[in-house]
User: Fold these one by one.
Assistant:
Number 1:
Amino acid sequence: MIREDGPRLALEGPLTLATVAGLVEEGRSLVASADRLLDLAAVTQVDSAALALLLSWVRAARSAGRQLTIVHAPAPLVSLAALYDVDTILPLGR
């Protein structure tokens, strides 16, 4: 689920292969519409699908000339990003 509070977007629950498909298009639209702060503090589980989702949102934001900043990234997501060598592409803050 994506919660929007002004420029802040918050994701909640698991970001896995079973859950991200329903978030892709809504998130792309939101990050392309304004500079955004994406808060992942309430994310409970991640897998490689979470990386794919976030990479698509970063691309959408950049294509629209917008900035996407990701904060409170869970440690497993940071580890996955490093493992797949995309940690320099994703603006992950902890």
Number 2:
Amino acid sequence: MSLQHAILGLLSYEPMSGYDMKSFLDNSINFFWSAQLSQIYRDLGTLEKKGCVSFHIDAQEGRPDRKVYHITPEGEKAFHEWLQRFPGTLSSAVRDEFSVRIFFGSRISKEELLFQLRRFIKEQQEQIASFAYVKKVVESYSKKTAPEEEFYWKLLLNRSNSVARTLINWAEESIQELENIDKDTDSDDGNQLNE
């Protein structure tokens, strides 16, 4: 997926400025898709050249004028064609640096690995806590703009919440297993002495 498709999707709800899009992304779908303001404006320029978006200038007193973008019929067509073309593989590509470090865990001190796993749990817990805020934003936004979308947006919130909880369980189990390594080694040594 490209950011351009997300932009077209947002504009299919209502006209927005680049800043409005950034704010929406940050306060709603940031847990599965994010973008920098510079990327949004770059892709808006590309979409404008393709004829997928147009804009009007919204004059503001005491602040710079803002460009408010609208999706064009060509943009609607491109967005709906993209929606219908699902990729062959639905799971996203994984490039997880934390997992690579765990893979080479034998070369890290046990204490450091335990520390990082506890830190990972804390990050996941913070993510879960942020979902409550996102849920409120989704409910508020969907009521005024896209009430039929709320159900689908909540499906993604539930998915992300489930993934975070599963990752916490995995990290907690990993901590227990790491803490038991020395115990298992000690009991194996004791058994060898008794033989």
Number 3:
Amino acid sequence: QANAQFLSLDGSLQNQLTLEFIVEESAVGPLYSIEVGASAHGEWMPFAILRRKTGLHNPILEMGSVIPCGLSDAQYDEVADYAIRVLKALGLDLGIFHVEFIYTSDGPRLVEVNP
């Protein structure tokens, strides 16, 4: 359907558009953040995981943070490993990093990374 509509456009408009799409999953679950440190010697240290409190009617609005975060030890380890894999994939390997994620029924899903 998108292709048919695209082909029906004037040629000058077609030159300004693309049929490439990004499909994203809507992550459902509570919002968390983890602070992770990386040393010049290749050592990784997850410092803390925080549960992020969000607005009741607006989950984009962050209202504060809670420690302890309420995750089990196994979930904590899973999130720490996940955050370190994300940072390594981005080439962020020296400093302190803030990683936000939603903990879904399938595990953590990335929201943002702040070096």
Number 4:
Amino acid sequence: ALTSKALTTLGISTYDTANPPTFAPLACTAVTAANPAVVSMANTGSIQVGDIVRLYNITNMQQISGYDFQVRVVTANTSITLMMDAS
């Protein structure tokens, strides 16, 4: 189940690292070597701006596999733009 938490006071929240939320993987076709990096994908699922995504087994850019990135822009069912300079 997807979970969302809105902060109404102080902007501080706890995060349970022993039980982090997990979601079904979404396939991507490529990542641009640009600033910012854009991940092409046919299904962006429930990804939203500000979400943290982990990329793995990226065919054209294995050097970023396993890293977490914050989502800057979502173009529904086309791509997500990351807060990352991949140029």
